[in-house]
Structures are given as structure tokens and as C-alpha cells.
Design a protein that fits this description.
This protein has a single domain, classed as 3-Layer(aba) Sandwich (Rossmann fold). Helix content is 27%, strand content 30%. It has eleven helices and 22 strands. The strands form five sheets. Strands 3, 5, 6, 7, 10, 11, 12 and 13 form an eight-stranded antiparallel sheet that branches. Strands 2, 4, 8, 9 and 14 form a five-stranded antiparallel sheet that branches.
Amino acid sequence: MKYCRIICGMLSALTVMLCVSGCGTGEQSGSTAETEQPADNTPFAEYLSNTWISTGNNTVVWEDDVSAGFRAYLPVEAAGEFEYCFYFSNTVDSTWAKGEHSHAGMPGSAYTIDAAEIGIASEAGGAVRETKPVTFGGSGTRAVSPGETFWSDPLTYNVPEGQYLVWTWYVHGEMIPATVMSDLAPTYVSGDGKKFIYTNEIPLPQLIGCKRDVQKKIALIGDSITQGCGTPQYGNAFWGANIAKALGTKASLWNLGLGYARASDCALNGDWLARAKHADLVLVAFGTNDMVSGQYGVGKPNAASAIENWLRQITGSLQEAGCEVILLNAPPFDFDEVREGIRTELNAALPAAAESLGVPVFDWASLLSDPNAPGKALYGGHPDETGCKIISDAFLSQFADRLPA
């Protein structure tokens, strides 16, 4: 197996992500809508996210023939015994970097699941115990078609308080959609099925689904700032995790943030946005990568008017599905003069756009910048632990009337 290419790709991708943004943006002429079959409503109504770690697809594990085991240690939102069911999408949700290797709406190639299981562990990267097989239509294996969406069979499993839920599976194929973790969760790859080594790119289920009762289903959709980049390794101190922990088991929080994601990616209205439509409340946070990298295939910063248009499309689509929406403006990122001009124009236009849509704006930009130098990111372009605490505290206070008491 040719793991040099995979490992080198992981390291280079991580370097790019830390240096740029891991968010996405883009300019669009006319409609960017793609036609993808929405996921089945019934399982999504029953199974809610039980981890605040984002497991969407923003890249692919590419090689002539990948044959490997992948393992992730995931913190759970609600400990205890529940029925679990896992959802998968063999399509890339958002564009990575300039889209050289993967872009939004790109179907993965055919691949095979040779085996899958869940277990628990007491510490990150620690010994896995009490494993239980995950099956698909009663079988331990499954052939997956390009662009296919599917669910596992349900199974009952107990994750005790303070333990990690450990997902392990063995797959082989050529271009399998994956997520770049950026040290948000402990993730590993194995070539022999026995020895697991660190990896930053890992294919995973798109939903760690858990059947549990909550007062409100919340989804966050955005870029790497939503995903949680910039906070301490495995620290679960990003703003989405803070909100989830503050609300406890009264709410579920599904983090759909993806590094390098653009508003133009989300406005394609594919399976990524379709997943968000199953939430009661959706926080929409895009703009940074629309200014950094631009729309896939365009390769330059997008105009504020284009970004606003995509945000309108995303919001309208969510509202049509019955979702309550909160828009977040574009945070500071220490941009150059051109990009800062775009950010300033977008943020100035957003309140009126939000009012016309009947949705509120969460002004996290003002929380994260110096009033005397609005473009300066006080806590880093990817807000650090302190910045994320400021964000989550302000959000919980401002929108207390929309959240479970």
C-alpha cells in the first residue's frame, strides 16, 4: 500500500488549513443548484447527532487503491445506553483548498466496507473494549456506489459517562470522501488492521445517530471556524462544543462545519445542506473562504453581493424546510485590504438582508475584533479557546429565548 502519498497529503493539507482558514467561499454566476436526492426523513427524525465533532466530507482519501482501517475517538453529547444508527454519504460536501483533488458535489468512487464496529475507550487513543459490530442490511460488509447515501442497521450500545465512543471500520476503494480533522478528535489509520497510526484525514459516518429525546435539535453549518479549528488539540473547547455542553441533554447539536467550506458550496443545496434541514434551529456561518479562495472553478475572492446572495439562498432553503435560522456575520481574519473591504461590505449589508428574510444576526465579528481596528482578529482567525468562550457565552445569552431553559 502506498501510504506515503496519504500521509504527505495529510501533513500538507493540515499546513494549508492552519495557514489559511479551512472555510469556503465563492462567486457564482446564475444558479449553482445541483440536484441531489435528499436523505430519508424518517431515520433523521429518530436519530440525532450524539457528538459535537464534525464528521462531514471536505476531501477524499485518494490513492490507486486504498485498503485500510480507520478509527476515531468521539466524545458523546449524551452518555448512557441508546439505540444508535449511522448515516453515510459517498459525496464530497465542500471544496478543499482550490479544489485540485476534491470539490463540493463530487461523488466518491465505488468502495467496499469490509467490516465496521463501535467500542468505548477511557482515553484518547487508548485501548478499545466492548466492541460491537455494525451491520448493513444484516451483513457485516457492504458495497457502496458513487454518490450513494445509506444507513447502517440500528444497534443498542452503552457509552458510560466520561468515555469515548470509538468508531472503527475497514474499507477499500480509490477515492473515499473524508474529513480533515485538524486535531479535533483522535483519528488513526492502519494498514494491517492491527497497528493504528495518527492520520488527519479520515472517512467517517456523516451522522453518529442516537435515538434520544431532546427539546431542540440544533445544527451548525459553516467553515473551519464552525468546525472548531484553532482550539487546543482534543480539548473540545470550540464554541459549538461549549454551547452543546451548556445545553446538556436538553438539546442535540450537530456540527456540520467543514474546513475550507464556502457559502457557494452550501448553496448547491446538496446532501450537506439537506442534513441541516432536519434541525429545528440552524446557525449559518460562512464568508471567510469566499473571501480567501473563492468559488470552486473561479479561483478569486468573491464579491460581497455574491456571498450575500448565497447566504440568502441557504437561508431560504432552510426556511422552506421549516427551520429557524440565525445568520452569523463574517469574523475578522487579518485580511489584506481587498478582502477586508469585502468583509466590511458584507457585514454592513447583512442586517438588512437578514431583516428581509425574517432572521436574526449574531454579530460575532464585533466580539472577536479590536473596535479601533475591526479587521484585526484578537483571538486568531480561527478563534482560540478564549475567543470561543466569548462566542459561546454571548450566543447563549443573546438567544436564550430560543434555546431550552
